[in-house]
Design a protein that fits this description.
By secondary structure, this protein is an alpha+beta fold. A hairpin with a 3-residue loop joins strand 5 and strand 6. It starts with a helix and ends with a strand. About 13% of the residues have low confidence.
Length: 261
């Protein structure tokens, strides 16, 4: 019996030793290789973080400036409102209209199409409502109360002309920035009917004229953001003279075109 007990005890001791050895080997494996695994796992987190940063950066670069004009609200009032014009430090901060029935429809009508002597700021049907033509002309009355385009005459003052370099047009999807090239007295000649601006030579001559107008009353910007070429787009603002017949013109060239949200 004593021999049988000894054999059983021996087997138990062997089993215990085997279990101890397996436990020690397991601990050693975790100690040596477990740390390596914990070091490799963060690479996945880092990769996700980099992707997140990249996505956020892409979104930021795609954010468009907000359009300050609520065209949805304006179009409920009148669908023929195609733009808005603003010239800093003047009263010129108005919607721009374009009639589909008669060029001079808004000559003596307000934005509600009601009769009003002061009329509205408007463009003729021959011009693109998106201001993509080589030359676009906007008309407005020279009102004694300073409304409509009367404040264009502020640009007769050399100091005012020098300090006010840009003006802005807002369309439904864009902000257009124009640099003031010149302002001067002009004849009664109808610009859009008198020139074929699709011809390069005609447009080039027009650009040369606005850079050097033949008028006793004129201001011309000596240094522009860039040299004018036939690739440019000009916006001509036209109103009556204070005295006598003819027109007073403010010429601007498009220098920045931003899409809006």
């Amino acid at each position: 019996m004593s021999g049988e007990k000894s054999s059983k005890l021996y087997v138990i001791i062997i089993i215990i030793l085997v279990l101890l050895i397996v436990g020690i080997v397991g601990l050693a494996y975790n100690f040596l290789f477990g740390g390596l695994k914990s070091e490799t796992e963060p690479s996945t987190v880092s990769s996700g973080y980099s992707q997140t940063v990249s996505d956020e950066t892409d979104e930021e670069t795609e954010v468009l400036p907000e359009n300050p004009i609520n065209f949805k609200s304006l179009h409920k009032k009148n669908s023929e409102i195609v733009a808005w014009i603003r010239i800093p430090d003047t009263n010129i901060n108005y919607p721009v209209l374009q009639s589909l029935t008669a060029d001079d429809f808004y000559l003596h009508r307000d934005v509600n199409k009601s009769a009003k002597y002061a009329g509205s700021i408007y463009m003729e049907y021959c011009n693109s409502s998106e201001f993509t033509d080589r030359v676009t002309v906007l008309y407005g009355h020279n009102m004694k109360d300073g409304s409509m385009f009367a404040n264009l005459h502020k640009f007769e003052n050399p100091d005012f002309f020098k300090k006010h370099r840009y003006f802005y047009v807002y369309t439904e999807n864009e902000i257009l920035t124009y640099e003031v090239v010149s302002a001067y007295n002009y004849s009664d000649k109808h610009i859009m009917n008198s020139y074929n601006f699709t011809e390069n030579k005609v447009f080039k001559n027009y650009l040369e004229y606005i850079l050097n107008p033949r008028s006793a009353v004129k201001n011309v910007r000596k240094k522009l953001d860039h040299k004018l070429t036939t690739d440019d787009r000009v916006l001509t603002l036209s109103t009556c003279l204070n005295i006598g017949d003819g027109r007073y013109l403010l010429q601007g060239v498009l220098v920045k075109d931003e899409y809006t949200r």
